[in-house]
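Example record

The entry below shows one chain as it appears in the dataset: sequence first, then structure tokens.
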Amino acid sequence: MTKSPPRKAPPATPLDEGERHLRDFLKHARYLIQSTDMQGRLLFVNETWRRTLGYDEADLRAGLTMQELLDPEARADGLRQIEAVLACREPGRASVVELCLVAKDGRRVIVSGETDCRIVDGAPVATRAIFRDVSAQRHDEARARHVEAQHRAVVDVLGEGIAIIAADGNVELLNPSGERILGARAAEFIGRRLLDWPWRMVDEDGGDMPREAHPALVALHTRRPQAEVVLGVRRADDNAPIWIAVNARPLLRGAAAYAVAVSFRDVTAERAAVMALRQRETRFRGVLETVRSIAVCLDTRGHITFVNDFTLLLTGWRRDEVIGTDWFARFVPAEESITALFHEQIARGEVPTHHENDILTRAGERRRIRFDSTILRDDAGTVIGTASVGQDVTEQARAAQLKSELIAMASHELRTPLTALRGAIDLMRASDEGRGDRERMLVGMASRNAERLDRLMGDLLDVERIETGTEALRRSFVAVDQLFESAAGRTRARLEQGRLTLIMTSDPVELWVDVARLEQVVVNLIGNAANFAPAGSTITMTAHDDEAAVRISVRDEGPGIPADKLESIFEPFVKVDGGETKERGAGLGLFLCRAIVRQHGGRIWAESSPAGTVVSFTIPKTNP
């Protein structure tokens, strides 16, 4: 039996060829293509659909439906769209749908596209759909919306007004702070051209500003940022004049500006403060120009920022020759220590408050100036320099020098005859037998006055040596209680004469001082208290350790010192009336005390009330 030859396939028709090409297109298209029955069961999916969602033919044969693929979070919206498609309410018309599906591996996939119904014999038998995977696009859009929401939230809470102006001049955005500053709702601005807003603008000098000169429009037209442009407008709600500082930055796309971002803030109060400050500065400079004193302001480098006419007249310089130059290099002699002290202290935010030094005029003449200085700070508290006012004390210094020389000469010249005079009086007192009471009284009076004159000469010489620095301190350690005992011994006779009681209390502390000089201070204070203390009263002497210094105080129970004399009693030859006045000096005791205390780096002061007077001084606890 012979085999019949195989039957040849009939030749492909153009229709068959077209169907094959269509199936190949559907299989390999980059879109997700699917078909379902009218219950949503998937009948056909292409390769891109399988690759994107991960399901295969076995899943389709198992009856996989579109409803099963819906993401639970978007299921309600997805079912609504699928049910509308399956209802086929408008046959022949495609529907646009966007579904959030769950891939086989659990990924969320968002697809968007068109779907319609296949009609056979007038009835829908299946659905057809072509989708695109828009997951990445929707993710980016959601992220952009989130970022935009964040930015808008920031813009809404900013204290500054924020506006966006489109290229055609229309206002597109105005934040709540902008509404508050301008006194109008955003709805009154948005959609309107900036040029159409019926407001009058003025510049910083108060002149009219054309609307075209608004910084936002200038930034749009020039494509250049506009910074801190101050202009005046009136608020829309209450017509109150305000000043605003405007910053505008063009938003560029290529070389063209498509919008401008504007920020602005209310500077009305700030401007008023600046104007007030300028007025105060003008008054301050006016005052400094009228005083017959040196007035100079320096920056932190020591360069001159202001100098008044009197300084220029005194030194012979012109203003343009000294402004901006180094004060110390031009005016202060090289040997003056104030130069180094200024640079050391200005770095710490300090300045020598009271100081005295020579300055040089243009002709090279030295002038002695006594300065009072203060630190200058800006609104943030940062040190920006110093201001100093100085008195020309050149003539006073020369007079003081002559006085010192005269005192020194007179004291030395008087000491020799005074010594001889005291010797003669002592001889007379030793041989006063046979003299009458009146003669003995006169000899005693002469002896006391000679002693007083001797003490006066000694005090004058002491003050002179201390003030001129010709006598250095001879320091050594001494316990304060020992110092008190020694001073009490030297004043015992005086206290017994006035029937006075001395009470002494002291913290256990030692001082590095010139013992003889400091004992002289304590003796003088006890003697001064004895002059004013009533007979039978108590003088109290205390010493307290105040960490950096020791404070020593002497208190009496006298009638007190008038308030207007509490400072002047430390000047030479000043005496206060009142008290018992047992023994009156020349008024140099407290002056000498102040000189000695200052030489030790301390200070001295008096406090008084009707119950008595307290004179206190401090001595630093410095090491050798």
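Notes for this example: The domain at 158-266 is CATH 3.30.450.20 (Beta-Lactamase). The radius of gyration is 51 Å.
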